[in-house]
Design goal:
By secondary structure, the chain is mostly beta strands. It is 8% helix and 19% strand. A hairpin with a 2-residue loop joins strand 2 and strand 3 (20-23).
Length: 404
């Protein structure tokens, strides 16, 4: 639209030309691109189905009324429309394009209609004033960075229909908790990165992979329960968070470079029995005091897995490294395991590490159940290796004490 357009405008449902009436079915791409003088738009009810790419990009609109006939909002339609403070998306909309609402800094809330099954890449990104996004129960996919960069969003509910979480999807939000729905199998690269107020995340049993930087830079996240079906932790997948210990599930096979780099925060961690790749996995664990390997036959992991990555870990270090009963000799024969200063066989159930299974071990587990336990004993307290310290672990210790 090459002419100057200012103020409020109304787009009719039909136009007459040479005694013929034509239905308006779409707004052309770039129609109001960079029209900062346009402040309000009303689109009359009729046959309009599509708003083309960048139609209102960088415009000055404050409010817009959309017709019920609308089905498609194209890419970057409202990108940079930083004065837009409210919009009602009609129920008939099925598609919202890439970057559709990126940079809508005055927008406070957004309700996505029920027919939308995917939020496309960067669709609702970097909206400085946005505090609420309501997602439909039909949503299946959150594409790359689709809701990222909105620190004003302090709570969001992911629908049970969701199956895909792309990279950077939920990064840089102000949320304190989030539940990933059952059916999601992968948390994409940096999907939950730098959510600095995040204190709780619930992961589904269906989850098999947390990709590179998947849950990264969340310093208030003190506890995480990883599902038993988890197979892969990518590079720095759980790095720079606030967990004092991490219980890794027995089905885990791959631990990426720096997957649990927590500086001085992480005090205890375990290595599952079937891990086949962990080169560089434990880089940066400068505060680790107890590491439990469940690998029965030691092998050389390669790279910087332990030796140079954990200062003091070897040659007089203070970290104690526990190995399965009967496997000590295999560890003593293979580098870098053989270089560990304190390499000992684990006694399952000896939570307090006094070489005896007794009431004090049960007390330590109870403290963990009450969220008051010593982080260094957490791995040993998970006696049944379920990645959850609970009454089952207490019962196992009782039976051991009673020699049952």
């Amino acid at each position: 639209m090459g002419c100057n357009v200012n103020g409020s405008i109304t787009l009719p449902a039909t136009v007459n030309y040479q005694n013929e009436t034509y239905q308006i079915t779409d707004i052309a791409p770039y129609a109001f691109l960079d029209k900062r003088g346009v402040t309000q738009v009303t689109i009359q009810q009729g046959s309009l189905t599509t708003i083309g790419n960048q139609a209102f990009c960088n415009s000055g609109i404050v409010a817009i009324t959309l017709p019920e006939s609308l089905t498609t909002i194209g890419s970057s339609v409202f990108h940079g429309a930083d004065k837009l403070n409210s919009i009602v998306i009609p129920d008939g909309v099925t598609a919202i394009g890439d970057r559709a609402f990126t940079g809508c800094n005055s927008l406070k809330s957004l309700d996505i209609p029920e027919r939308v099954t995917a939020i496309n890449a960067f669709a609702i990104t970097n909206c400085a004033g946005l505090t609420s996004v309501n997602l439909p129960s039909t949503l299946q996919r959150l594409e790359q960075a689709s809701i990222s960069g909105n620190p004003g969003i302090t709570a969001i509910t992911l629908p049970q229909s969701l199956r895909f979480i792309g990279e950077n999807t939920l990064a840089f939000l102000g949320i304190s908790s989030i539940t990933i729905p059952e059916g999601v199998t992968t948390i994409g690269n940096s999907a939950v990165a730098v959510c600095e107020d995040l204190e709780s995340i619930t992961l589904p049993a269906s989850l098999s992979a947390i990709d590179n930087y998947g849950i990264y830079g969340c310093p208030k996240l003190k506890n995480i329960r990883l599902p038993q079906g988890l197979k892969t932790l990518g590079e720095e997948a759980l790095s720079k968070c606030g967990m004092p210990y991490i219980l890794l599930p027995e089905g885990l096979t791959t631990i990426g470079d720096g997957a649990m780099s927590h500086d001085n925060v992480l005090k205890a961690v375990n290595i599952p029995s079937i891990v086949t790749k962990m080169e560089g996995a434990f880089s940066g664990l400068t505060g680790a005091r107890r590491v439990y390997s469940r690998i029965k036959q030691a092998y050389r992991p390669g790279g910087q897995t332990f030796v140079t990555c954990i200062p003091g870990f070897t040659y007089g270090g203070k970290t104690k490294f526990y190995v399965p009963k009967g496997s000590l000799s295999s560890y003593q024969d293979v580098s870098p395991w053989s270089m560990m200063n304190m390499l000992v066989e684990e006694v399952p159930g000896d939570v307090d590490d006094n070489n005896t299974i007794d009431v004090s071990d049960m007390s330590e587990i109870i403290n963990h159940v009450l969220v008051k336990g010593n982080p260094e004993t957490a791995i040993a307290a998970d006696v049944d290796r379920s990645c959850d310290i609970d009454v089952t672990d207490i019962n196992i210790i009782i039976n051991k004490i009673l020699n049952k």
